[in-house]
Amino acid sequence: MEVLSTESVEKLRASCKEEPSIIAKDFEELEHDLNLILIPFNFENNTEIDLTLPTGFTQETNKDLENCKLVGEALKSLTPAQATDERLWVTLCFRDFRDYALARWPLERAKTEVNHVQDHWFARTSRNRMRDNAVSRLWWMSYIASRVENSTLDEVLRTLFFNSDYRSNLLERNSSANAINVVVSILSISQTAFDNGIEFDRDKFRSFMKKVDFIGKRTSLPSLSPEELNSLLSPMYADSYEINKKKSGFLSRFLK
Q1: Which of 143, 88, 144 lies closest to 121, judged by CA?
Q2: Residue 245: its pLDDT value, please?
Q3: d(CA 235, CA 213)
Q4: pTM for the full model?
């Protein structure tokens, strides 16, 4: 596979800041006009897939869940390290999945065109990659969901995509709580709670995440094993939700 060079990504970034509407141009036209250069990227891919175009902008019609599974399967050989490379995602947005990106994030719906394009076509930061980039966010959601044990991929993806409060509190943080293994642990704990009839509560979950942020300042959460994370975070979740261990089987999986 070939992707845009770093210099070419920067050319595109600068050009989009001057004229956001160029995202609608064919990739070959951009390649010619801006003298973009493609370089080898060591990755066996299957980007010749058709993502499902959204039929609306609600969670039921934007097709995020369906496309998350499609991207996850098409790019299943991608490693997390490779998935931090902005060049890959910019290339996929402007070339391979251009029609999808334009349909999912149309410029006419943007509050600020420049910011809109920088958020959804580029992926400079980890938050951009996980939350905003049109294609990257789908892969990362699929990757994270696939690592949650004892729950199906569909169950975890529905939790992520059909509850924006849960998703934003879980992912939109600049702390150790946003490390992949910590996110997976929290998702696992949440799914276990849901399976035990403990429904999502925005205020209680926010309280829990604040506790995770606080303890993350004193403990290197990303360095902990899954077992250590679950043992540490499950009681905090139970405390935030005011779950009495004697009255609920929720903690039985983690605290024995």
Answers
A1: 88
A2: 59
A3: 15
A4: 0.88
